[in-house]
Amino acid sequence: MEPLSFKVKKLQTPTDISVDFSLQLVGSLPVHSLTTMPVLPWIVAEIRRLSMQSSVEEPSTSQIRLYVSPAGLRCEPDTGKSQQWDPLICSSLFEYKPQHVHKLIHNSHDPSYFACLIKDGAVNQHSICYVFRAADPTK
């Protein structure tokens, strides 16, 4: 008698779904956790201003890949297509659970820039504001 065998197709769970974006990390600043939405455009402008100052002194673009999934938000340096990913060289710049993303801001005057405010889980009552720039403003 032949053994009965069958294949079970694995369904994709919501935690498996991940979208990644190729962006430029403009910069970040620690801010107080009670920072409100009306203050965020000022913080984003300050991060952009500091980035412009540092790029004049030392030109460096920080190309990153931002991975967004129901399980979390992860940012890694973008090694490009020419270099293979190496876990010993490439490490995460940051990784947060979705519940730590506190606020998102998008400038309608310059749609290629956006920012997110991440609440740090520590007791120090600080958050971090990250500013990103997309090459394609529609994404």
Structural summary, described in words:
The protein is mostly beta strands and 139 residues long. 13% of the residues lie in helices and 37% in strands. Strands 4-3-2-1-7-6-5 form a 7-stranded antiparallel beta sheet, covered by helices on one side. This is TBC1 domain family member 1. InterPro entries: PH-like_dom_sf (IPR011993).
Helix content: 10-25%
Query: Order of strands side by side in the largest beta sheet?
Result: 4-3-2-1-7-6-5
Which stretches of 5+ consecutive residues score pLDDT under 50? none
The helix-strand sequence is EHEEEEEE
Structural class: mainly beta
- Tally of strands: 7
Q: Could you say which overall geometry the principal axes of the C-alpha atoms support?
A: globular
Distance between the termini: 57 Å
Largest sheet: 7 strands, antiparallel
Using only CA atoms, what is the Rg?
A: 19 Å
Which percent band covers the strand fraction? Answer: 35-45%
Q: Treating each run of at least 4 consecutive H or I residues as one helix, how many helices?
A: 1
